[in-house]
Structure formats: structure tokens, C-alpha cells
Amino acid sequence: MKNVLSNEKRAAELYRVSFRCSELQGNCNRICGNCPLNVSLYMEDPREAVLLKTSASIDYNRIQQAKLRSNIPGLIVMGLIALLAIKCSMPKKPAVQVTTSVAPGNPAPVYRTRRYAVPSLLVADLPRLVTDVNNDGELNCIDYAVTFYKHWPGARIIRNINNGTGMDHLLNLIVYNDREIFIEPQGTPSKYAPEEVWGNKYDRWFNMDQTDIWAIYAK
What pTM was estimated for this model as a whole? Predict the structure, then answer.
């Protein structure tokens, strides 16, 4: 005796076929007459076949929209990460330029040393030590931040980008007396805190560690 599907099982299988048809709508040849996913081949009433296909299509579209909404936060995060990676991998010339007439000269040998007992000593010495580390023909914040990094053990190179104030600048971060201190290497021995040098133009919230990017110039 031939096995026959129950009405419930038959309805489930027909819906499954209709749903699969909806999934493949963009990748089929549109020749429905002999397509095994055309439920009209298995149903006597064409109106019921259309109803079933329409219902499956509605459910498929609802699921796709739900997936898209759930993926939006992740896509935004991925997009921001990609933009940051691109921006960090292609450093542009900082908007804030150094106004100094100090020539590169012949600085002392470049190596990290503990001769600078306090940050102000190194800040005072930087005009003598700084060179055009990236060979762009200028002495600017790149050269000062990289030079500071080379001479202060454990220093980090920080980039501050604040589109609201026009800040695009490199500075340094050190650990001194068990405290993290941000250093403006273009400052003076008595005034080298970024807040003092730049005022409201500087906001430490926009600081990001880019040591790995700029350390390539620390030769």
C-alpha cells in the first residue's frame, strides 16, 4: 500500500518548497513550468498555490529585514574600524606646524637614555636633537614627537585629532613618578603640558595611541 503524507506534513513540505523558491528568486531562470520548487505543480487549486507562495515570500522578506537590522550595529563598528585603519595607515601632514628656525644640524647619537631625570630637561634639549625624521623637508610635530619617543624610555606617541577645533597633532605620553603624563614636546621647560600650550584647542578625550605607526621613523 502506497504511503501518503498527512495533510499536516504535506502542508509543511509545500511551505518549505515555497520558502526555498523565495530564497532563490534572484538566482533562477524564471522558467517555473517545470521547476520542482513551483508548488503549483503539487496543488490543484491555483489560488491556494499563489496564497502559499505569497505567504512564504512575506516571511522570507521579514526575516531578511530582521537580519539587516540586527547587523547594522556590527556594520557600523566594522566601518568605523576600517576608516580608522585607513586613516592611521596613511598619516597626513599635521595641520599644526612648528614655527621654528632650528636647523637639523648634527644631533647627538640617537638612543634611549636616562640622562633626562625630568621631562623638562628633554623638552629643553629637543631643539638640538630634533631632525627631519620622515624627510618631508619640515620640522614639525612628527619630528618632535618621534625624537622625544627615541630619548625617553617607555614614551608613547599620541595623536590628537579634533575636527571641532582643527587639532591634528602629535604629542607624547610618559610614565613619570608612577603617573601618566601627556607631554607637548614643542613646549618649553616650564610649560609643556598640552593643556597649557594649546588651551581649549586641545581635548585629551581625542587622544589615541599611534606609537606603532610613527615609531618606524625612530631610526
Answer: 0.50
